[in-house]
Specification:
Helix 3 runs antiparallel to helix 11, helix 4 crosses helix 11 and helix 13 crosses helix 14. It is built from 14 helices and 15 strands. The protein is an alpha/beta fold and 392 residues long. A 7-stranded mixed beta sheet has the order 4-10-9-8-7-5-6, sandwiched between helices. It binds pyridoxal-5'-phosphate. The site of pyridoxal-5'-phosphate (PLP) has 14 residues, from helix 5.
C-alpha cells in the first residue's frame, strides 16, 4: 500500500488527504518522499521560523534530549525558567508565564485566567477570528462553521465584527471577563484592523475592568518583524498567548500574564504534563537567540517588503491586493481561485496556502532571503498565469 492509502485507512478524516508526504528539509526548502523539492513559503503554517533543520535548533534539541527530555511539573528546569525570563524581558512588562504545548492550550490558560479575574464573566471575541480547536478556544473562535457542530460550548461569548470599535464598546460590559483579539486576523485571511483599533480595545477593557487577551499565536515571535505585533501598536495587553513560531517546529505554547493577571492562579488551578517540556524550551531559546543574534526582525521587515512589492510587480490580473506585514502576507485574489493557485504553485515547487477561498497566505521562514523570494515569485507568477488562462 502507498503512504496515501495507509493514511486513508488509519487516519481520521479531519484533514482530508494531504497532497504530499514530506521527508526532510533544509533551510527554506523541503523534499517529498518522492524526491521533489519545494520552496516552503508556508513554513508549517507560520511555525518553522528558522526554516528546517536549523543548526541552532538541532544542536539545542540534541543536547537537551541527551541530558533530560522530560521532568513533568513536579520539577523545575533551567531551560524553562530561562525561556520564561527571556519572554518576559522581550515583552518588556512585569509578567508571569505558563507553558503549554500549542496555541489552543495557551488560549485555554488565558480563558481560565479570565474566569478567575471575573468569576462567571463572559468573553467578547471577533467574527472571523481563530483561537484554536479545543472546547474553550473554539468557543471564542469567530467561525460559525467550525464552532456550531460542537455546540454547546462554554460561554457566554459575544462576537463583534473585527475592527468595529463601536460594536465592541456596546458588547463589553461590567459582566465581561475578557476581550480576546488577534493583532491581525491570521486564519481570517491576514486582515489588519483599522489603525488604532487595538488601542481602542485597550481603553474599552480598562473602562469595563475586563482583561485584554492578545492572541499572538500566529503574529508573535518575529512574524511581522516585531517580537510581538501588539508591541508595534504600543498596546499593553493583560495576557499574551504564543505558540507556532516560538518553538521553531517543536511543540510549545506560552501564556504570559501581566501584573495582577499574573497573580490569578493558585497552586492546583491549572497544569500540563508536557507543557514547558525542556526539549521544546531549549528549541525556543535557540529560536529567540538566533532571531536576536542574526537581527532577523529587521531582516523580516526588509524581505517582507521585497516579497510584497515583487508580487505586486507581477501585475497579475488575478491579484487584487497584497496585504499583511513582515513575512506574513495575504495575496488577495479577484475570486475563489486560491485553491487552484495553491495547487499550480505546488506543481511548480512552491508551497503556499489557500487560507481563504480568495486569499493565499505566505508565511515563509524568517531566514528567507530576497533570492528565495525572487525564485518563489517566478513560480507564483506562473501559477497565477496558469489559473487565469484556464478560467479565461
Ligand atoms: N490562535 C491563532 C491566532 C492561530 O492562528 C491558531 C492556529 O492557527 C491558534 C490559536 C491555535 O493554535 P494550535 O493549532 O497550535 O492549537
Amino acid at each position: 500500500m502507498t503512504l496515501t492509502e495507509r493514511w486513508n485507512t488509519v487516519m481520521m478524516d479531519n484533514y482530508g488527504t494531504p497532497k504530499v508526504a514530506l521527508d526532510h528539509g533544509d533551510g527554506v526548502r523541503v523534499w517529498s518522499t518522492a524526491g521533489d523539492e519545494f520552496l516552503d513559503f508556508v513554513g508549517g503554517i507560520a511555525v518553522s521560523s528558522l526554516g528546517h533543520a536549523h543548526p541552532a535548533i538541532v544542536a539545542a534539541v540534541t543536547d537537551q534530549v541527551g541530558r533530560l527530555a522530560h521532568t513533568s511539573n513536579l520539577a523545575m528546569h533551567e531551560p524553562g525558567v530561562r525561556l520564561a525570563e527571556r519572554l518576559v524581558d522581550l515583552l518588556g512588562l512585569p509578567a508571569r508565564v505558563f507553558f503549554a504545548n500549542s496555541g489552543a492550550e495557551a488560549n485555554e490558560c488565558a480563558l481560565k485566567l479570565a474566569r478567575k479575574h471575573r468569576p462567571g464573566g463572559g468573553i467578547v471575541s471577533c467574527n472571523a477570528s481563530f483561537h484554536g480547536r479545543t472546547f474553550g478556544a473554539l468557543s471564542v473562535t469567530g467561525n460559525a462553521a467550525k464552532r456550531e457542530p460542537f455546540a454547546p460550548l462554554p460561554g457566554p461569548v459575544t462576537f463583534v465584527d473585527y475592527g468595529d470599535t463601536a460594536a465592541l464598546r456596546a458588547a463589553v460590559t461590567r459582566q465581561t471577563a475578557a476581550v480576546i483579539v488577534e493583532p491581525t486576523l491570521g486564519e481570517g485571511g491576514i486582515v489588519a484592523p483599522p489603525p488604532g483599533f487595538l488601542t481602542d480595545v485597550r481603553a474599552i477593557c480598562d473602562d469595563a475592568g475586563a482583561l485584554l487577551i492578545v492572541d499572538e499565536v500566529q503574529s508573535g515571535i518575529g512574524r511581522t518583524g516585531n517580537w510581538f505585533a501588539s508591541q508595534a501598536e504600543g498596546v499593553r495587553p493583560d495576557v499574551v498567548t504564543l505558540a507556532k513560531g516560538l518553538g521553531g517546529g517543536l511543540p510549545i505554547g506560552a501564556c504570559l500574564a501581566v501584573g495582577a493577571a499574573g497573580e490569578l492562579f493558585a497552586p492546583g488551578d491549572h497544569g500540563s504534563t508536557f507543557g514547558g517540556n525542556p526539549v521544546s524550551c531549549a528549541a525556543a531559546l535557540a529560536v529567540l537567540t538566533t532571531i536576536a543574534d542574526e537581527h532577523l526582525l529587521d531582516h523580516v521587515k526588509q524581505v517582507g517588503e521585497h516579497l510584497a512589492r515583487r508580487i505586486e510587480a507581477i501585475g497579475a490580473p488575478l491579484v487584487r491586493e497584497v496585504r499583511g506585514s513582515g513575512l506574513w502576507r495575504g495575496v488577495v485574489l479577484t475570486g475563489a481561485h486560491a485553491a487552484d493557485v495553491e495547487l499550480s504553485a505546488f506543481n511548480r515547487g512552491l508551497l503556499v496556502n489557500a487560507v481563504r477561498p480568495d486569499v493565499l497566505r505566505l508565511a515563509p521562514p524568517l531566514i528567507t532571503t530576497t533570492d528565495d523570494v525572487d525564485t518563489a515569485v517566478v513560480r507564483l507568477a506562473d501559477a497565477l498565469q496558469e489559473v487565469a488562462a484556464r478560467d479565461a
